[in-house]
Design goal:
Blueprint lengths: L1 H14 L7 H10 L1 H9 L11 E2 L8 H9 L2 E6 L6 E5 L7 E7 L23 E7 L2 E7 L2
Antiparallel strand pairs: 1-2, 2-3, 3-4, 4-6, 5-6
Helix pairs in contact: 3-4
Amino acid sequence: MRHTAITLILLAALAGCSGPETDARMQRHYENRKEHFHNLVMGPHCQIEKSKILWRNEDTEDNALCRELLTRVEADGVAIDPGSGGIMIIPSQRGYSSHQKGYIFSPKALAPLYPSLDEHPPDLQPYQMGFKRIDENWYITYEYVN
């Protein structure tokens, strides 16, 4: 009985450790909700402050429309990336993988660019972000957080 309980706990823990979505799935997700992504970062609904993540579960009157947009793009939060100055969108259900992916909107070109982020780029250091452009000013981000 004890062995079964330990096995179930390990399986449940590993289920949350799956890696991030593929580039293709993330790009399709973006394309299917493009208007909502644009409204999230360029509309007047989200008051994004430096050094602070606006989480979808922060329930205030001021951010009701922003929270609705976060729900529509299936994101948990939105924030300004301190490295690039772009607006990061933190997808829901990222799990507990050491490889994290997300979206970022940036009018300035971001680097380093990669043709694919489905595998860890060998020259990317821990806590350094890599990018794949998916639209004008829009990128998928990849970070290995060790």
